[in-house]
């Protein structure tokens, strides 16, 4: 398509002379987007003539992180009366045109199989496209979405051009451990979130960045977690390892002092992992084969509030005295175990799940050691359904102890 200059516009020859501030624009055939603010919170994206000889101008939302080029020229496309687009320019920085600061947003480097929204130029969306390989990633990309594809490998160097990546979403692919290079993630010193759940991994990937804060490896086939798996990852706060085949994870947790959420549910654990990080806030151990708890295992946790042990093999003998009644827990799940009595719990507990056990007696003293104006249970939800109990088994003074309870299921 021929581009012709009109009044108030410049020719392509003039463009090359007047765009020293934007060297990308001087390349013939390059497709470059310029993002300008309009005072009325509207903006336009301009795409100079690309490789196919086409061009367009479209309205879009304002991108909040706009860099000012201080009065330089802002390039845009302006349709001529006969529909032929022409390249024009207006000064940035307000005035009668209403334009504000401008930002260059290159788009010519976005792979055809992905989407790089001009309103979010640091993100690349390649999800749900039946991709079998990691595509080329422009260096400006920080947020990479590759989930719901058919990718089976991540070779070393796959992210070499985009070492500033902050998020990588590659869940629900076909990744195997043999297909993931030993240094596939080693260069990503700014990586914050890595989602690899619902893949075919049999090992924790090697050389994970120490910058990681959120690592999700659930729904894989990981059986072993060696002690060095998370070495140096002092920033990791969320670790999801649920729905694997893990038998022990103890040694690997010592390297995670900042961990606040640990999910190792639906594995093959026979005991509570040792050396649990002291900053834990949520601990999920349901659907394992744990029959006993170590004495005082909750001591020293200043922030632990949510503990789930449902669907295990816990018995009364397997729970040492005072395990739960000296803690600051808010929610405790002991459902689907082999308990015959209500274990003593803290009066500060708000949610207690004991359904589907073998409990035959409602021992109110386990919930309230004494009852008066200031001493009572803070339970809001108490579930005892699926046991050998009925409403008739409630003691007469249960209403005083459980005065805050909104739900009692029996």
UniProtKB/TrEMBL annotation:
Self-association state and partner proteins as the record states: Binds to type I and type II collagen.
Gene3D superfamilies attached to this UniProt entry: Ribonuclease Inhibitor
Compartments where located: Secreted, Extracellular space, Extracellular matrix
Organism: Conger conger (Conger eel)
Keywords: Disulfide bond, Extracellular matrix, Glycoprotein, Leucine-rich repeat, Proteoglycan, Repeat, Secreted, Signal
Protein name per the record: Fibromodulin
Signal sequence, renumbered to the chain: none
Native organism taxonomy: Eukaryota, Metazoa, Chordata, Craniata, Vertebrata
PROSITE patterns: LRR
Family as reported in the entry's similarity comment: Belongs to the small leucine-rich proteoglycan (SLRP) family. SLRP class II subfamily.
């Amino acid at each position: 398509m021929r581009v012709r200059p009109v009044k108030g516009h410049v020719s392509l020859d003039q463009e090359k002379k007047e765009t020293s501030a934007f060297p990308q624009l001087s390349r013939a055939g390059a497709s470059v987007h310029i993002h300008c603010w309009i005072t009325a919170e509207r903006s336009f994206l301009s795409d100079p003539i690309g490789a196919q000889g086409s061009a367009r101008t479209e309205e879009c939302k304002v991108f909040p992180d706009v860099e000012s080029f201080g009065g330089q020229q802002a390039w845009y496309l302006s349709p001529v009366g006969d529909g032929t687009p022409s390249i024009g320019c207006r000064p940035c920085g307000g005035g009668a045109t209403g334009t504000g600061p401008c930002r260059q947003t290159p788009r010519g480097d976005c792979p055809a199989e992905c989407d790089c929204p001009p309103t979010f130029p640091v993100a690349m969306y390649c999800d749900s496209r039946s991709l079998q390989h990691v595509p080329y990633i422009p260096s400006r990309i920080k947020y990479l979405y590759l989930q719901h594809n058919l990718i089976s490998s991540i070779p070393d160097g796959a992210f070499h051009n985009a070492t500033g990546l902050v998020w990588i979403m590659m869940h629900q692919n076909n990744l195997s451990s043999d297909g993931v290079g030993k240094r596939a993630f080693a260069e990503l010193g700014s990586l914050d979130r890595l989602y690899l759940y619902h893949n075919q991994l049999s090992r924790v990937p090697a050389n994970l960045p120490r910058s990681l804060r959120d690592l999700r490896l659930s729904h894989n086939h990981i059986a072993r977690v060696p002690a060095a798996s998370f070495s140096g990852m002092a920033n990791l706060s969320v670790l999801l390892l649920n729905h694997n085949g893990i038998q022990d994870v103890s040694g690997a947790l010592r390297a995670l002092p900042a961990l606040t959420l640990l999910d190792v549910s639906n594995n093959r654990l026979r005991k509570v992992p040792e050396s649990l990080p002291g900053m834990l806030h949520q601990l999920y151990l349901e659907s394992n084969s744990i029959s006993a708890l170590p004495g005082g295992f909750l001591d020293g946790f200043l922030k632990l509030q949510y503990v789930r042990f449902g669907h295990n093999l816990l018995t009364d003998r397997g729970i040492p005295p005072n395990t739960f009644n000296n803690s600051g827990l808010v929610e405790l799940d002991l459902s689907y175990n082999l308990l015959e009595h209500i274990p003593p719990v803290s009066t500060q507990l708000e949610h207690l799940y004991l359904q589907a056990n073998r409990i035959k007696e409602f021992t109110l003293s386990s919930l309230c050691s004494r009852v008066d104006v200031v001493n009572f249970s803070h339970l809001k939800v108490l579930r005892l359904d699926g046991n050998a109990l009925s409403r008739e088994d409630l003691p007469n003074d249960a209403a005083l102890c459980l005065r805050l309870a909104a739900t009692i299921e029996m």
